[in-house]
Amino acid sequence: MTSPSDPSDQSGIPEQTDTDRLPEVLFVCVHNAGRSQMAAALLAKHGAGRVVVRSAGSAPADQLNPAVIEAMAEVGIDLLAGGAHPKKLTEAAVQASDVVITMGCGDACPFFPGKRYLDWVLEDPAGQGVESVRPIRDEIERRVLILIDELTA
Fold first, then answer.
1. Is 113 a catalytic residue?
2. pLDDT tens readout for residues 73-85
């Protein structure tokens, strides 16, 4: 049997090494309806295919925060058209991720050795209008841009 990197291999499938693998990031918040959704969408936008992005919550809400949807639309991101919806946090999602970022909401996250864990303390947009959500969105975007630089350097 030949390996994909063997010149006699005719499969055409290149061998994937750790240096070829995209970094994977999981954003976690209790309801997965606001901060973690904004962070995931902003990382997907700015990461432009250079990062695999997930978001989840330990107690997912029934729907996304309407003020978050509006604030993201203002920066050209349609969360609903992109398929965003609150999702349940699973151990598999944590295990698959290189970086796990909790959003300052005290959410418990399974711990696995070798993962990088960060806690971004951010105001909760729940129950707030779009005027209050904008600065939260902007702070998340600032942190996301720094994260992209760290992950893709």
1. no
2. 999 999 999 999 9
